[in-house]
Amino acid sequence: MELKWQKSSYSGAGGENCVEIAGQGDTIMIRESDAPNVRTSTSRSNFADLIKGVQAGKFDHVAT
After folding, report:
1. φ and ψ of 13, to 5 deg
2. Which tops the pLDDT comparison, 61 or 62?
């Protein structure tokens, strides 16, 4: 089954240097558009927790 990759609407028109995701069963596949053969994966639950954390601003600080 071929994956259907999705780019963020914030990625811009160029289409390069974008994070892309694709669903595969209970797994979310993640890749960088300029290196499409390099992939990582996580569960849908963990990915949802990441998105909730980003939306809540939990990662807005800069480590010094």
Report:
1. -75, -25
2. 61
CA dihedral 12, 18, 23, 28 (to 10 degrees): -140
- Give the model confidence (pLDDT) of 24-42 as tens digits: 999 999 999 889 999 999 9
9-14: long-range contacts at Cβ-Cβ below 8 A with a sequence spacing of 24 or more? none
DSSP SS3 for 46: helix
Residue 63 DSSP label: -
Positive or negative torsion for Cα 51, 44, 49, 19: negative
Alpha helices in 1-64 (DSSP H): 44-55
Q: Which amino acid is at 35?
A: A
Report d(CA 39, CA 19) in Å as an integer: 10
